[in-house]
Design brief:
Belongs to the ABC transporter superfamily. Helix content is 27%, strand content 29%. The protein is α/β, with parallel strands linked by helices and 247 residues long. Bound molecules: adenosine-5'-triphosphate (ATP). Adenosine-5'-triphosphate (ATP) binds next to strand 2, strand 3 and helix 1.
Length: 247
């Protein structure tokens, strides 16, 4: 049975890898102001797999983009270990994204004129301590598709190339925005298996945005957003593997 208990830090993992401290985000839309996030605080620990759950418009992507240094909050602070990334400046943010963060989006964002291997090489060439691109593609089960172009790959395979590209630089934090949103049920599960393997095999702290409550059962913790606020944080007891999930 799946039981959730209230949030407690993992034993021995009391220093968060990343901490979001009272962030709010407002967008000016002509005369109007849209509030995407309201006083959100959260902590993410090394090696965790955290699911960010919430209905459309609840602020999930905004939070993920701020965590990854793609966007900045209107107020509040974000710390990566003891470094305040909200005070980093453009150059510091670029280095943070390049070295420490891997992104996986719903639509794979591969370069169509480059092979799977070349798409991954784009990242490994600029990272300071990457794995070999072949190794990254092997990790996602695509060691035999190195020279395929995106159009010669299925949606699930393209998403696995995108995951290989994101993890090849050995980021400490992998941020995934609806990674199975464009995939059918079975293919989605294969992609979730790859994310689990990366999380467990490499110890990469992983955040996964989803609308799908069932996917939260493969997480260590679930953070639920509602109208831009954290509605609930729960630890998953009786974690399931993606193969055991159904929806
Ligand atoms: N660039 C922007 N300009 C104006 N408003 C924005 C912008 N980005 C997001 N918003 C608004 O902020 C709120 C939160 O958006 P966000 O994309 O973070 O939600 P979400 O939970 O990820 O939704 P979805 O599941 O549909 O992707 C929404 O009301 C959205 O319309």
């Amino acid at each position: 049975m799946h039981i959730l208990t209230h949030d407690e830090p993992e034993p021995g993992a009391d220093t968060p890898l990343l901490r979001v401290d009272d962030i709010s985000k407002e967008y000016a839309m002509g005369e109007m102001t849209v509030t995407a996030l309201r006083h959100v605080s959260a902590e993410f620990y090394r090696g965790e797999l955290v699911v960010l759950l919430g209905t459309s418009g609840s602020g999930k992507s905004t939070l993920l983009n701020i965590i990854g240094g793609l966007d900045s909050p209107s107020s509040g602070r974000v710390f990566f270990r003891d470094r305040e990334i909200t005070a980093a400046g453009e150059e510091g943010l670029t280095a943070f994204r390049r070295e420490s963060i891997g992104f996986v989006f719903q639509f794979y964002n591969l370069i169509s004129s480059l092979t799977a291997l070349e798409n991954v090489q784009l990242v490994t060439e600029i990272a300071s301590n990457p794995m070999r691109p072949e190794e990254a593609l092997d990790l996602v089960g695509l060691g035999d598709r190195l020279n395929h172009f995106p159009a010669q790959l299925s949606g699930g395979e393209q998403q696995r190339v995108a995951i290989a590209r994101a993890v090849a630089k050995k980021p400490e934090l992998l941020l995934c925005d609806e990674p199975t949103g464009a995939l059918d049920y079975e293919t989605g599960k294969v992609v979730l298996e790859v994310l689990k393997d990366v999380n467990e095999g490499l110890g990469t702290t992983t955040l996964v945005i989803t609308h799908n409550v069932s996917i939260s059962r493969m997480s260590d913790r679930v953070i639920r957003l509602r109208s831009g606020s954290v509605a609930d944080v729960e630890r998953t007891v009786g974690k399931l593997s993606p193969a055991q999930l159904s929806w």
